[in-house]
Amino acid sequence: MAGVEMFPRGFGNVAFVLVAYCFLNFWMAFQVGKARKKYNVPYPTLYAIESENKDAKLFNCIQRGHQNSLELMPVFFLLMVLGGIRHPCACVALGSIYTVTRFFYFTGYSTGDPKNRLTIGKYGLLPLIGLMGCTISFGISLLRGPCDRKTSSGSSCYFSSSRGN
Description:
mainly alpha, elongated
């Protein structure tokens, strides 16, 4: 397949982690839809008004948990894809941890007490920082340019026969 050779071995697992996050996002959206029905918050209302709905805070916490995950999704996806080109194994591990922390962030928030989102969810920042490091490493490797295996001082080259033919 043309173009696939440029990706390192293990990059396919990066795609699987991104798909897992998509499933988590779909599940969160489904939870918001169920809460809309349960707490009588019709579309296109984004957040319930506390003076009009006694369950507004609970619905708003569920909605906000999903909304926050949507806000961070483009950052997460970009860091996973770019960082994964240079460091697929590290990005798979970090992305998996991030996905798990997002689940706990959402379920904690969905209790109606915003503090509960931080029990395990607060650790989601750490894998994002790790993904930033992987992406920075990839950017530096691009700036340094491709290396010649004969003159390389032991540093690894991105894309260089990393598929293990």
